[in-house]
Structure formats: structure tokens, C-alpha cells
Amino acid sequence: MSNGLSTMGRYPITVAALACAVLASCLGGPGIEPRYFSATAAFDANLEAAQPDADEVYLIELQPVRVVGHLRERMVWRDGAGEVGFREDRRWSEDPAGLLARGLEAALAAAPGVGAAPAAAEWSLSVTLEQFGELRATDTRAEVGLRATLVDRRGRVVLQRQFSASEPVADDDPGALVRALGAELADQVQLLLAAVEDELAARGVARTAFR
User: Fold this and answer.
1) Rounded CA gap, 81 and 85, in Å?
2) 24's torsion region: left (phi>0), alpha (psi -120 to 50) or beta?
3) Which of 18, 116, 145, 203 is the S-S candidate for 131 at Cβ 3.0 to 4.6 Å?
4) What is the DSSP string of the chain?
5) Which residues touch 18 (CB under 8 Å, ≥6 apart)?
6) Are strands 123-136 and 74-79 parallel, antiparallel or unpaired?
7) What angle do CA 25, 30, 35 make, to 5 degrees?
8) Strand pairing partners for 131?
């Protein structure tokens, strides 16, 4: 009899402890504290800083940068099978679309053969950021992917091309990943603008006095 009473006497304590745990969970216990990263320094360091000497350039109207839906504040990863996931503990201090937009403007200012037009230029450039994160394949890689479309004033497509790069980085080293992404993005932006210039030159398009 005494054993039975002793056993039942523990139940209220157990129930109370469980209720407290559930309540703490509902109210929000200790969560993941995100860390914020910036690829700006690596991007700027890899962007050609020399100002061009050319007095005549191809004037390009730059459209607002587009970005695929999952490339936002949270850093992302994807695997070879197409699965995409988010790093809850790693965030961007500047969203990738903002970094690309600012980078394109800076690159246009420094490019030797193209320049930014305020509006209604003969050529219009649209750029979409398709990849900007960690690729999990046989090794861990930093992956950047852009899609560029250049159209004339009538809306005819003159150039449509993808620009991509991936570089191996150390596993679980967010600093190395961020530096590689910033550097790759700068390189691909410059390759993109060089391709635009080459395409217009091949078509015999006249340059415009600008500098």
C-alpha cells in the first residue's frame, strides 16, 4: 500500500515538469542565433578598379536586377540532385540582389567599352541572379550563376547567355565560402560586360561619345 501511494505521488511532479517544458517551448526557448556575413569586401577587391581611357562607349540601360525566389537573406545550399536548403544560422548582411545591382553599376562605371545610360538607351541589359551559395557535390564549392539578356530598343534579343563559376572551399568554413562567392560574382560581372561589348562590336554597332 505504501509503495502504491509513493508511486502515485510522483505523477503530479512528472506532469508538472512536462507542462513546464511544453509551455517553455510554446513561449520560445533558446533558438539559433544567426551570424551575418558580407561578400562586399571580396567583391570590391576583385572588381577592376582602373577607370577606362576610352571616350566612346556603348551606352547600356541597366534594368533592375532579378533574383530567383530562394536567394534572399538566408544563405543557401544545394546538392547535385536539385535539393535546396537554407542555413538558419547564416545570413547575408546585404541581400545578394543588392550586391549584384551595386556591382553592375560599379562595373559599368569602370568598364573600358560600355557605360551606363540614364534611360531610353539603344541597348537594355537585364541580369538575373540564379545561383549564389554553397554547392554540395563530391566536394563543397562556392557557386555563382547569372543569366544576362541584352535587347535593342525594339525588344529584339541581341545576346542571351549564362555566366557561372564554382570554386572548391573548405567544408564548414563560412568565411572561405563568402570570400569565394564575392570574388566569383565580380569575375562573372566583368565577363558579362566584356561579352556585351564583344557582341556589339561584332555587329558593327557605333559607339557613343560619353567620357
Assistant:
1) 12
2) alpha
3) 145
4) -HHHHHHHHTHHHHHHHHHHHHHHHHH--S----EEE--HHHHHHHS--PPP--SEEEEEEEPPPEE-TT-SSEEEEEETTS-EEEEEEEEESS-HHHHHHHHHHHHHHH-SSEEE-SSS-SEEEEEEEEEEEEEESSSEEEEEEEEEEEEETT--EEEEEEEEEEEE--TT-HHHHHHHHHHHHHHHHHHHHHHHHHHHHHTTPPPEE--
5) none
6) parallel
7) 140
8) 145
CB 126 within 8 A of CB 106: no
Q: Are 144 and 164 in contact (CB under 8 A)?
A: yes
User: Which amino acid is present at 169?
Assistant: V
Asked whether the beta carbons of 158 and 150 are under 8 A apart, the reply is yes
pLDDT over 50 at 8, yes or no = no
Hunting for cell 507542462 — which residue is that? 19
Q: Which of 4, 14, 123 is nearest to 58 (CA)?
A: 123
Find where cell 505504501 sits. 2
Reported as a single tens digit per residue, the pLDDT across 91-142 is 999 999 999 999 998 888 777 788 777 666 789 999 999 999 999 988 899 9
pTM of the model: 0.80
Q: What is the pLDDT of residues 58-90, one digit of tens each?
A: 889 999 999 998 999 999 999 988 899 999 899
How far apart are alpha carbons 167 and 35 in whole angstroms?
23
Whole-angstrom Cα Rg for the chain: 26
